[in-house]
Amino acid sequence: MTSLDTSLIIFQPSGRQGRVETGITLLDAARQLGVDVDSVCGGRQTCGKCKVIVERGEFAKYGIQSDPQHVSAATADENDYFRRHPSKFSAGGRLSCVACIAGDVVITVPPESQQRKQVIGKSAGNRPIEIDPILHQYYVEVEPHTLGERRGDWERLQEALAREWGLQHLTIDIVALRQLTNALKAGKHKVTVTVYGGKGQESRIETQGSSIKPPAPFMAKVLDVRGGFHEGLYGLAVDVGSTTVAAHLIDLTTGETLATEAAMNPQVSFGEDLMSRVSYVMMNGNDGLRKLTQAVIGTLNTLVEKAAKRAKISVTEIYEAVIVGNTVMHALLLGIDPTELGAAPFTLTTHAPIDVRASDLGLRLHPAANVYLPALEAGHVGSDNLGVLIAEAPERQDAITLLIDIGTNAEIVLGNRNGLWSCSSPTGPAFEGGQIAHGQRAAPGAIERVRIDPATGVPKFKVIGNEAWSDTLSPDAVGATGICGSGIIEVVAELFRAGLLRSDGRFVENLEWKMENGKLDISNSQSPISNPQSHLRWQGVKAEYVLATAAQSATGKDIVITQDDVRNIQLAKAALHAGCKLLMNGLGVSKVDKIVLAGAFGSYIDPLHAMILGLIPDCDLATVVAVGNAAGDGARIALLNKTRRAESAPFARDGHYIETAIDPNFQQEFVGAMHLPHMTDPYPTLRALGVLPAKSASESDGRSARRERRRERQEKF
Amino acid sequence: MTSLDTSLIIFQPSGRQGRVETGITLLDAARQLGVDVDSVCGGRQTCGKCKVIVERGEFAKYGIQSDPQHVSAATADENDYFRRHPSKFSAGGRLSCVACIAGDVVITVPPESQQRKQVIGKSAGNRPIEIDPILHQYYVEVEPHTLGERRGDWERLQEALAREWGLQHLTIDIVALRQLTNALKAGKHKVTVTVYGGKGQESRIETQGSSIKPPAPFMAKVLDVRGGFHEGLYGLAVDVGSTTVAAHLIDLTTGETLATEAAMNPQVSFGEDLMSRVSYVMMNGNDGLRKLTQAVIGTLNTLVEKAAKRAKISVTEIYEAVIVGNTVMHALLLGIDPTELGAAPFTLTTHAPIDVRASDLGLRLHPAANVYLPALEAGHVGSDNLGVLIAEAPERQDAITLLIDIGTNAEIVLGNRNGLWSCSSPTGPAFEGGQIAHGQRAAPGAIERVRIDPATGVPKFKVIGNEAWSDTLSPDAVGATGICGSGIIEVVAELFRAGLLRSDGRFVENLEWKMENGKLDISNSQSPISNPQSHLRWQGVKAEYVLATAAQSATGKDIVITQDDVRNIQLAKAALHAGCKLLMNGLGVSKVDKIVLAGAFGSYIDPLHAMILGLIPDCDLATVVAVGNAAGDGARIALLNKTRRAESAPFARDGHYIETAIDPNFQQEFVGAMHLPHMTDPYPTLRALGVLPAKSASESDGRSARRERRRERQEKF
Comparing C-alpha atoms, which of A603, A578, A567, A574 is closest to residue A484? Predict the structure, then answer.
């Protein structure tokens, strides 16, 4: 065999092919042809990442005969590798770093051997995420030190990383520097090095385009050095919510989520909602701030320990955390005084993404681990919202998407590739069950689904933890404890749809029309409430609607919706709707193509009811999607893909942001949006469904409920 | 006054002059003419740094009449400043940031108003050090945040620092980020910012020349933000010796040393010398390492607190420490296992300079403070030696300088601007009083000076703490406790000079020659030892020399020099001399122009005696200088001048280093250098002084002491 010999090699599934010099390794051939094959150990037959399948048979498509014999015989080390890792063994399986080409072959690169693996995002329209984290592990052999030589261990490690992996401009953390000498001794000069940043990092800078100031050239940093070959590169995606803290432990080489742990945010004991926690800091100063910070950090440490235990890894193998949260959570996590966020002008300490050493926050991960906190958009639009943007990527799409993340403030983003507009609307706690007489958090026993028969005014409902409707259960089997957010939305929307609520939100006093229509259903006269009118209980000028009877409730008391509850829901939905309208006016559109509801709450609300309430603008109901914890998913994506992470910073800086607190149109939109649904919007979808009268209905006559409702709508609120 | 009006302005002492637009401030005029005037508060009449003197009178030299009236009247704020700082007031004194030019003037810039101040180094041939630290404080006014604006406090601070001070590419430490919002509130948008790096940093990179890999562009980092105008920028220069730890607290704006604190290195209790501490770590593993590290860090924290208290500053105003030490101290300080330094090939974890957060080392300075550890040269040549180089700057000189820092290892550097050679010689503990029968540390009572009458063999000496020679005191007033290093060197050299020691280091058995010469002095027959021969006491084949009698000693026993003591001194001086010879051979010189003795020990030894012993090569004795703690002085210079700091890293990497442990010539030079002085060296200086016979003396005859000594010299050792 001379150096002029060449062989044809074809890689599947890419189909890339070419003639290469006979005698070179399959891995080198793959690299020459631009085929993506992974390798961690640098050809030491240790990591198995470069395993390929040498195919046997006639490949008519390519016109060649492939045979495992057309590749050099397995080495002793290679056989040893497969003996030690039987799960990796398969027919024709070879380590491409040592198997050399001896003739024409077809090679299959299995998915696990591709460097650029992908995982499917949970939200993000199930778009695949390319696994390209900011952290990498390298197995490298360092030259031994010889007496009289002027290079230390670190200088020789740098030289080895440059030679074997092309890494340049490295720095080393003091933690890794402390490990280095003994790791080299333990591994007999072979070590596994964990590097933050480095190769390919330059491309990150280019992708940021010209709209951003040139960042400082990126220095890669060695965070860890261990003797011998070692696999274990994990990250943490964390969503710190006001109520719940959730941590996902992720394998940064496969993208797999190994464990998810969640807990109540212990700050709840200092204040249920954000503003009461801000008040706590205002009143208790630095001590109060320290307590709140220590509380959430302590919980995170517990979650990390649990997740690591479940995944059977060490917390010291977790090299990075990406943490998202609203602006107050963000400040409290970092130990920054959030007082300024409690009042206009809602000043943030910084909008920029933050990289901080985990140990500086008191987080117990790897002692040199990094924590990345994505950028904040504005005083009330936090990195949780940016997480939703990272996950949903509206800026890559043509469809005009409306992203709504409902909490005490609703964070709303509207736009597409031509631009993004965002704002925060002060919805208050009503959607979370706050300021609602029988409101409660979404938990077993909470009423989450409601239907009211428009003919009779009689309700049926479902409680969390029971798939059956209440009317199919004996009352004592229902056990309702209260009403959660989605239940509140449905009951108010259903009350309106059934004609029990006027468009202005007041309960209808005179229900004679029901009788007029002759549709009174007395079939459930066995029910404790035999007369539907009695579901609406009047006390003087105020009414309340009995959703669950005392017999159906776990508390032994009626679960009711009061006039105040309806008013609070109106205030909340009007704030949300006004925010959406401001963004639509800003972007200059009268209709959106798609509505994405983020957050746990968004997953439970029914789009139709949300639209009846006027929570969301008119839209094809089929395009309304709930994406669950998209903020957490965004954190996971930022952890797994450094390019997406880098892309996200400009969103926060360059998007159009409307400060609802000072926009003169907000109050106007807000007042107009108090009605059910928004008076000034046509809502053709609801009209087509018959929930609202068709436009022509305004010409119809008679003292009907519909006419009554129309009249109400024309009244000034 | 139109914009075309110009005035002549002359700055003293620089003499720079030019016509500038009438009406501009004196500070702007200075900047236009390239005159160095300091300013910290950015023209807010707060810092007083820009104070200048407007001269009155006829300046014939320049041909102008200067008058304080040729400058605009003082503002209310300016008057207020001088009222609050009466010490700054002087006739004609004005704040140049507000005083505007109204006519021709002569302006004197007092030294304290020059940005580029200088202090005089203690060593370094009293060369001035330009004060140009890596840290600066800036007083800056940040735009208030307006509602709806998309910039956080940090973004607006960056903008203000860029606008007012030209700072770019800033990052901010989490510590400062936590302070920022409340500092802006407290200072009503005016804050004092402490920045590490920044302006002028680029020039640092250029000065490193082409021999160094291009470093990453420097990012400046905000370490601290305080509300309002605040002065207080301090640094720490630390020399961690095996025995003593010394810390100097330095004002980084004036260069002044405000306090110096020193303490025993508490690691002494784990092992007196370096190798016993290395053994301690070998035997006790990570626990042992942790104990040694915590011991020295704890002591440093105590020294820092004491120094800060003495200087009446807060430790949180100390923003950087520069720490030098030998390689084992360096490793133990950082928490790096020093075991490899205990045996060949003496592998260092890194040679590179290290920047590490003080808090990562457990050092309690400002919580974001940096610690800089200069580069290490080789396994036994530490940053203390680099400190000597920083202070002495042989690489800037034509004179070929030999730098010797004597400890358990002697660190030796030889060279000039054409190149530096260095090595470490295993001198052992003899020069520090170790392995010497009556050896002791330099402390009150230790014999430090010795003279022996060549005619009689009778000694006289001085002890530390008493300026009088022992022969002028009554015996019971002497109180000698032992012999310290300089005393040991002198007594051995004097014994040789008096003919009591042969060139090979053995005591002379037959002293009849003294009688032959008829010079026996019996004048001090009242002395307890009336016969000089009795100072040399023989016990069988071994002799010892009585330096202090039992009556003169505090212990009540004779203080003697044994044959073994002489042998140990011979071993030590031979190692040192061999090292010097290797470097001279490496550089290709047979003579050095200058010898610099560094370290406390070097300050006490007498050059002539050192040369008689053969400790140092032949040299004009007038050019032998002791520079004291040049290592600590180097740390101080590295703290005060960032350019000198940056220049020093290449010394450690690019200098020629000879590993004495493997150099085949070392053993040969070592054996040859055992004689007193080195046989193969001509030592013309000693011959000229008559300490050694002139070359022609070899032709003289007779059983004289000189002939006897010559004969000895010709014997093979």
Answer: A603
Residue range A163-191, pLDDT digits in tens: 988 888 899 999 999 999 999 999 999 99
What does chain A come to in residues? Answer: 717
pLDDT in tens, A598-625: 877 777 888 899 998 888 888 999 999 8
Which residue do the tokens 């606008």 mark?
B163
* pLDDT category of residue A561 using cuts at 50, 70 and 90: very high
Residues of chain B with CATH 3.10.20.880: 134-227
Contact across the interface for B349 and A153, Cβ inside 8 Å: yes
How close, in Å, is residue B217 to chain A by CA atoms?
A: 7
CB A270 within 8 A of CB A295: yes
User: Could you report the per-residue pLDDT of B143-196, keeping only the tens digit for each?
Assistant: 998 877 778 999 999 999 999 888 888 999 999 999 999 999 999 999 999 999
Specify the range with the lowest mean pLDDT, choosing from A199-203, B345-349, B391-395, B525-529: B525-529
List where CATH 3.10.20.30 sits in chain A.
6-113
Give residues with Cβ within 8 angstroms of A162, minimum separation 6. Answer: A168
Residue A239 vs residues A249, A393, B177, B284: alpha-carbon distances, Å: 12, 18, 22, 43
Q: Do B347 and A177 touch (CB under 8 A)?
A: no
Cβ–Cβ below 8 Å for A181 and B337 = yes
CA dist B36 → B9, B52, B113 (Å): 14, 11, 8
Contact A146 B351 (CB under 8 A): no
Confidence of residue B711 (pLDDT cuts 50, 70, 90): very low
Fold of A6-113: Ubiquitin-like (UB roll) (3.10.20)
Q: Which backbone phi and psi does B587 adopt, to 5 degrees?
A: -75, -20
Q: Where in chain B is the domain with CATH 3.30.420.480?
A: 234-373
Q: Which residue has the tokens 């309806």?
A: A566
- For A152, the closest of B177, B219, B349 (CB atoms) is B349
* Count of C-beta atoms within a 10 Å radius of residue B570: 22
Chain B residues within an 8 Å CB radius of A421:
none
What span, in angstroms and rounded, lies between the C-alpha atoms of A120 and A107? 26
Contact B653 A150 (CB under 8 A): yes
Alpha helices for A312-374 (secondary structure H): 327-334, 358-361
CB A487 within 8 Å of CB A609 = no
Contact B415, B435 (CB under 8 A): no
The chain A residue lying nearest B182, using CA atoms, is A337
Contact residues on chain B for A362, CB-CB shorter than 8 A:
none
Q: Looking at chain B, which residue has its C-alpha nearest residue A347?
A: B152
Query: Which helix (H) or strand (E) is B685 found in, with range?
Result: helix B684-688
Question: What is the token pair recorded at B547?
Answer: 């330096």
Helices (H), A597-660: 599-604, 607-613, 630-640, 642-654
CA distance A666 to A675: 15
Residue A232: which of A51, A374, A44, A365 has the closest Cα? A365
Instruction: Give residue B46's pLDDT band: very low, low, confident or very high (50, 70, 90).
Output: confident
* pLDDT value at A717 more than 70: no
Exposed, middle or buried: residue A304 (CB in 10 Å: 0-12, 13-18, 19+)? buried
Q: How far is B348 from chain A (nearest CA, A)?
A: 5
Identify the residue with better confidence: A523 or A25: A25
Locate A181 and state its tokens: 């000498």
CB burial of residue A453 (10 Å; 0-12, 13-18, 19+): middle
- Cα separation, B570 vs B553, whole angstroms: 26
* Closest chain B residue to A368, measured at CA: B360
Confirm or reject CATH 3.30.420.480 for domain A234-373, answering yes or no.
yes
- Domain B134-227: assigned CATH number: 3.10.20.880
